[in-house]
Design a protein that fits this description.
Structural class: alpha/beta
Number of strands: 9
Largest sheet: 9 strands, mixed
Oligomer: single chain
CATH class of the largest domain: Alpha Beta
Length: 303
C-alpha cells in the first residue's frame, strides 16, 4: 500500500504536464494496486506517463516517497487514494479531484452527511450572534459533519460550535498535516479527533501554506457537502470564490442575509440576487437540509 501511495505522489507532482490524461490515470488507480517498481514500469512507462530517460531518478524518488509515507503513518496520518472504498463520492465529481489525500482523526465524511460553512474572517456581531443561536441549534439537532477551512471568524466559529456540542467537524487545510495552518488549530486537534472529526489535507505532509493553495483547497470545501452555507461575504473574497465553485458543481448555496449598506454582506446579497437560497433560522436549515438528503441520496452515507 505504501508503494501505491508513493506512486500517486509522483503522479501528483507531474500531472500538470499536457500528456497526462486524468481519466486514464484514475481508471488505472481504481483497478490496480501498484506494489512493485516493475508494475509501475509496465504500465506508466509503457503508456508514456513517465519518461524512460528519467527512469532511475524516478525510482529513487519513489523509494524516498515510500519512506515518507511510512513515517507519516507512524505519526498517525491516514491516507485515502482514488479508488478506495472510503474515497468521497463528492470528490469524484470534481474536474480535478485529488488522487490522494491524508487525514488525522476519523473518516467522518463516511459516517455522516456533510454540511459546509464559510464566511468572513471578521464577521459582524450580528453574524456571530446568529451562528451562536440558529446554527448551533441546527447542529445540535442534526446528525451531520460540519466542513470548513479553520480560518478565524466564521470558519472557526463553525468548528467551535461542533466541539462545544461534541459533534464531528472536518477541517480542510491549505497546508500539509505536519504544517497545520492556521497554527492555533494545533491546540484543537485532540478535541476535533475526540469528537469524531478530522483534519484533512491533499498536500504533502511537510508542505507549508502558500497563497495559491487557499483557492485550490476551497474546491474541496465546496464539494464535500450536501449544501454550502455562507455566513457573511464581501464581494471580493475567498468566500465568494468558494460559493461560485459550489454552484459550478451543482451544490446548493444558502445565504444568511445582511443589510445592503454593509459592505461585508455585499457578496452575500449578490448571491441571493442570482438565486441562492435565503436562510433565516435553524428551522430553515433543518427543512432545507432534510430536503437535500432526500433528493440527493447518492451523497448520503446512511443509504
Amino acid at each position: 500500500m505504501d508503494s501505491h501511495i508513493a506512486l500517486i505522489r509522483l503522479l501528483e507532482k507531474i500531472k500538470t504536464n499536457s500528456f497526462m490524461q486524468m481519466d486514464l490515470i484514475c481508471s488505472l488507480l481504481e483497478t490496480n494496486q501498484f506494489e512493485t517498481w516493475s508494475q509501475i514500469e509496465e504500465v506508466f512507462f509503457t503508456q508514456g506517463f513517465f519518461d524512460h530517460a528519467n527512469k532511475d531518478n524516478l525510482r529513487i524518488q519513489w523509494i524516498r516517497e515510500i519512506e515518507k509515507v511510512s513515517a507519516d503513518k507512524d505519526s498517525g496520518i491516514n491516507f485515502v487514494c482514488w479508488g478506495d472504498t472510503n474515497y468521497p463520492v463528492a470528490f469524484q465529481k470534481l474536474i480535478n479531484p485529488p488522487l490522494l489525500f491524508s487525514y488525522i482523526g476519523k473518516n467522518c465524511w463516511q459516517n455522516n452527511p456533510c454540511f459546509s460553512v464559510v464566511g468572513s474572517r471578521e464577521p459582524h456581531s450580528y453574524t456571530s450572534a446568529w451562528m451562536k443561536t440558529e446554527l448551533r441549534s441546527f447542529i445540535k439537532e442534526s446528525n451531520l459533519t460540519v466542513v470548513s477551512g479553520g480560518a478565524r471568524g466564521v470558519d472557526f466559529m463553525a468548528h467551535s460550535l461542533c466541539l462545544d456540542l461534541g459533534k464531528p467537524t472536518l477541517v480542510m487545510l491549505p497546508s500539509g498535516l505536519k504544517q497545520i495552518y492556521p497554527p492555533p488549530l494545533k491546540n484543537y486537534l485532540k478535541a476535533i479527533v475526540d469528537a469524531g472529526g478530522c483534519v484533512l489535507s491533499e498536500y504533502d505532509s511537510n508542505l507549508e501554506v502558500r497563497k495559491h493553495l487557499f483557492q485550490h483547497r476551497n474546491r474541496l470545501i465546496a464539494a464535500m457537502n450536501h449544501a454550502l452555507l455562507i455566513g457573511e461575504a464581501k464581494l471580493q473574497s475567498g468566500t465568494m470564490m468558494t460559493a461560485h465553485l459550489a454552484l459550478e458543481i451543482g451544490r446548493p448555496v444558502w445565504v444568511v442575509p445582511g443589510h445592503p449598506l454593509m459592505s461585508s454582506f455585499a457578496g452575500s446579497l449578490e448571491l441571493i440576487m442570482y438565486g441562492a437560497q435565503i436562510v433565516r433560522n435553524a428551522e430553515d436549515l433543518k427543512l432545507f437540509f432534510e430536503c437535500e438528503l432526500y433528493t440527493n441520496p447518492l451523497f448520503n452515507p446512511q443509504n
